[in-house]
Design goal:
The chain is mainly alpha-helical and 270 residues long. The chain contains 10 helices and no strands. The chain has one domain: Orthogonal Bundle (Helix Hairpins). 76% of the residues lie in helices and 0% in strands. Helix 2 runs antiparallel to helix 4, helix 2 packs across helix 8 and helix 6 packs antiparallel against helix 8. The radius of gyration is 23 Å and the shape is globular. The termini are far apart. Keywords: Membrane, Transmembrane, Transmembrane helix.
């Protein structure tokens, strides 16, 4: 948690100092919080995706887990470490929780509902945010304008990327926990794919293993957003939506345009 806080602070702080001391504002008026507009496009896209996926979202999740951990500790009388493990397991939606405790008080049940709502909203927000990133739009624009290309990405490329992700994190966990590679892969497959009955009974015990497990599950939210962004931004998918709900008629389009113009005029007058 503190490493993520330090990385985020140093990165954004260095960019802020650079903006105020090293460049003129009129030269780069649209500087970003995570990237500099003067960087090459590929670097900007990669850095923004990496920072959001591996730094910003885990950092926010860590802060939230700290807050909920304190609340659970007060409500249930658990040690803070146990409360934190329970909170981060809920926020990261781990299929294999880091602790087996369950709330036994009314306040604990209320916190369970609230943290589930928070996890739902956070997942939806991060998914939507990542789907709008420039690198995702670029990939979507690069998909050929055919249904075969869409199906190729959905049925072949995305499953391969997910499988690669499962293999990498599974291998890392197997090294940290002393498992066989097969056990690590089965564990990550159960967590990543949300299999109701886990494929292995292995449990993560080491602190680094827990960190990898949580990071992997939080990263899945960004992967989902990227997949949604690629699919939704494709012209064939947009055409499918138009065929399902129809297109806006010319009269309706003029009405919406005039309505927006009237609202803008009233706002300017106010």
């Amino acid at each position: 948690f503190f490493v993520l806080a330090g990385v985020l602070s140093l990165h954004s702080g260095a960019l802020t100092i650079r903006r105020h001391m090293c460049i003129q504002k009129h030269d780069h008026p649209n500087e970003g919080f995570l990237v500099a507009s003067s960087w090459p496009r590929e670097v900007r896209h990669l850095v923004s995706l990496t920072m959001i996926t591996l730094v910003l979202v885990p950092f926010v999740s860590g802060i939230s887990a700290l807050v909920f951990g304190v609340a659970y500790s007060v409500a249930e009388g658990w040690p803070f470490v146990v409360s934190f493990d329970y909170s981060i397991s809920s926020i990261a939606a781990l299929s294999n929780p880091l602790t087996n405790v369950t709330p036994s008080t009314v306040m604990g049940d209320f916190l369970d509902i609230f943290i589930s709502l928070f996890q739902y909203i956070m997942t939806a927000s991060v998914t939507g945010l990542v789907s709008l990133l420039a690198i995702v739009r670029r990939v979507s624009d690069g998909v050929p304008d055919t249904w075969c290309a869409v199906l190729r990405y959905a049925i072949i490329y995305m499953p391969l990327l997910i499988s690669l992700d499962i293999f990498i994190f599974g291998w890392v966990l197997s090294q940290l926990e002393g498992w066989a590679l097969r056990t690590g892969i089965l564990y990550m497959a159960s967590s990543t794919l949300g299999i109701p009955n886990p494929l292995t009974s292995a449990v993560v015990y080491t602190d680094l293993g827990k960190l990898v497990d949580v990071t992997a599950m939080i990263a899945q939210i960004s992967f989902q957003g990227a997949f949604i962004g690629v699919m939704v931004g494709h012209q064939k998918v947009e055409g499918l939506v138009d065929s399902l709900e129809g297109t806006v008629s010319a009269r309706e389009g003029r009405s919406e345009t005039s309505g927006s113009a009237d609202e803008n005029e009233l706002a300017d007058t106010a």
